[in-house]
Specification:
single chain, about 190 residues, alpha+beta, minor pseudopilin epsh fold
Length: about 190
């Protein structure tokens, strides 16, 4: 019995192996498939990074509005350096209504600077500095005039992809993609 099992094992041993030619052919096919998939994969990663960043900014705008309503006072989101949203953004209780976080004002949330590959632009009613301010009733306002709404658009681009966060005259924000939506233009009205 041991002899017959040994003979059977020797008979099937050559079937279990892979020849060098079979290995080279399968590696070549794998290399061709990977060369086709990698560019699409990097585009997918770039799109996802852009979507994540825009969603984080959109969440910060909504946090700003909800905190203003909850506190019954002005809350703002502003660029960290006061010049560009690319430097990151901070949500804070804006006690003196100047559009930037001063010492003693409560900081509710802060986002770090964006990667150098991002391009960020804004087009708002008050374009002196990048900020969005909300009053206690949930309406956006400019720092120059509490009766004038701060409406407009923040555009984020990474490579060939662009996404926008639009704030309308009522202070409501929405995310959109200009490639897919005709109403996603870069306007001061936020509509």
């Amino acid at each position: 019995m041991l002899v017959t099992m040994g003979v059977k094992l020797n008979r099937y041993r050559h079937i279990l192996g892979v020849t060098l030619i079979e290995l080279l052919v399968s590696m070549s096919v794998l290399a061709i498939l990977m060369s086709l998939a990698v560019p699409n994969f990097s585009t997918l990663i770039a799109r996802q990074r852009l979507l994540t960043t825009v969603t984080e900014f959109y969440a910060a705008v909504n946090l700003t509005r909800s905190e203003a309503i909850k506190r019954g006072s002005q809350v703002s989101v502003a660029a960290n350096d006061g010049v560009s949203w690319k430097s990151g953004w901070t949500v804070f209780v804006d006690n003196n209504a100047n559009g930037h976080a001063d010492a003693g004002e409560v900081v509710l949330f802060s986002h770090d600077a964006l990667n150098d590959q991002f391009h960020v632009s804004h087009n708002f009613t008050d374009a002196n500095q990048p900020y969005i301010a909300y009053t206690g009733n949930g309406r956006s306002r400019t720092n120059a005039n509490s009766q004038q709404p701060q409406a407009g658009t923040v555009s984020f681009s990474l490579g060939e992809n662009t996404k926008r966060v639009k704030v309308n005259f009522l202070g409501r924000a929405k995310m959109c993609s200009p490639e897919r939506e005709l109403s996603c233009g870069d306007s001061q009205t936020g509509n």
